[in-house]
Design goal:
Number of helices: 10
Number of strands: 13
Helix content: 25-40%
Distance between the termini: 51 Å
Order of helices and strands: HHHHEEHEEEEEEHHEEHEEHEH
Length: 377
């Protein structure tokens, strides 16, 4: 999340300084149009390319600039979740007072020199459960090469480690590449300590869900089990597929029906009922297509709270890491039926994300069991 410049109460930006600030994705055209409207300036277009040049010719009042600042400061980055399974001895207790403080200063100095911690990091018990521990953290990133309004940013993250009678789960929540890297470091350091203390076997490693673990066909099946064919969920009801990221398989002859994909490096399709398109509906095409991301909308009912949510499932690093890309889940948008304040909305998003992540783990476990039975037959 971008945070305000430390001296923002001491000046009013105008001209080019205001243009850059107002053009940020956090600030909508509607919010800018309302300021112009109050000035008696009416703009037919809702495009910021037309609105911002008009705005930057004005000298805003402190009250008007505060309205833009409010729009800027109330936006937060979406949480993304990665979860991995790991096997603990059944009698292992994760909460060990002598190893709950996390020292990351040397890591920050070496790998994230533009970042600092907002507060020290330590693991605590979740709901007083010594086998469910959680460490939350916030880093502040400084970048003096950016414009005045982009120089300081805050990003939050967390690491959870759970031991449920030997069935272990490691859950990483991140909002930026920096929080993702720091969380990875925390996980690796904690695993190392558990192994040194005999609470984890030396050969135990977190099980990642990687792009390479699927064939083209089984990857489609995995996505469908999370979306169109979701089962055994008392919380989520599938509505629609809204976005798909895919490409044709390299070095293979495409069927005539999807020959239009030939020589295309990347296809991003947005729309309605995409799961009903021929190449998504008919299994004969799956082996020729690499799909790495799907956005799906659901209705949810979480302890009486109802609404709709769009969830992104995928391998976001596929373009850069290829087969080594890891699976992630995040909420793209949330539309509750009842009005929620900022805190309630954020809490609900986190809980829904955890529930979908649990469902993902169950679907993946069934997939591994399928592979095991297939190998035995």
């Amino acid at each position: 999340m971008q945070i305000e410049h430390k001296d923002i109460d001491k000046f009013l930006p105008f001209g080019e300084a205001l243009r850059g600030f107002a053009n940020q994705r956090f600030i909508s055209a509607h919010e800018l149009r309302s300021i112009l409207k109050e000035r008696g300036i009416f703009v037919l277009s809702s495009d910021k390319d037309y609105i911002v040049p008009i705005l930057q010719t004005l000298l805003l009042s402190p009250f008007e600039f505060d309205k833009i600042r409010e729009a800027f400061s109330r936006k937060e980055d979406n949480e993304k979740k990665i979860s991995r399974d790991i096997t603990f001895p059944i009698d292992s207790i994760l909460f060990q007072p002598d190893m709950m403080n996390v020292d990351v200063e040397s890591y920050l100095t070496k790998h994230l020199p533009t970042c600092e911690l907002a507060h020290p990091i330590s693991f605590i018990q979740d709901s007083r459960n010594p086998n469910h521990i959680r460490a939350t953290f916030k880093i502040i990133r400084h970048d003096l090469n950016k414009s005045w309004y982009e120089q300081t940013n805050e990003f939050c993250g967390s690491v959870e480690i759970i031991n449920d009678n030997g069935k272990g789960t490691i859950r990483i929540t991140h909002t930026s590449s920096e929080t993702k890297d720091l969380a990875e470091h925390i996980v690796n350091a904690q695993i190392k300590q558990y192994k040194a203390k005999g609470l984890l076997k030396e050969n135990a490693t977190p099980q990642r869900i990687l792009f390479s673990q699927f064939s083209n066909s089984t990857r489609f099946a995995f996505f469908f089990r999370l979306t169109t064919k979701i089962e055994n969920s008392s919380i989520f009801t599938f509505i629609d597929i809204q976005d798909i990221s895919l490409k044709p398989q390299d070095d293979c002859a495409l069927p005539e029906e999807i020959l239009w994909m030939e020589d295309v490096q990347r296809i991003i399709i947005s729309g309605k009922s995409l799961n009903k398109k021929t190449f998504m509906r008919e299994e004969k095409f799956y082996r020729n297509i690499e799909v790495w991301s799907i956005d799906a909308s659901f209705e949810y009912n979480y302890h009486g709270q109802k609404g709709s949510v769009c969830i992104c499932f995928g391998f976001p690093d596929f373009s850069s890491k290829g087969n080594a890309a890891e699976f992630e889940v995040n909420i793209k948008s949330l539309t509750p039926n009842n009005s929620l304040n900022h805190r309630e909305r954020k809490d609900l998003k986190t809980k829904l994300l955890i529930e979908m992540d649990k469902h993902k783990s169950a679907v993946y476990a069934n997939y591994l069991e399928y592979l095991k039975n297939k190998g035995m037959s």
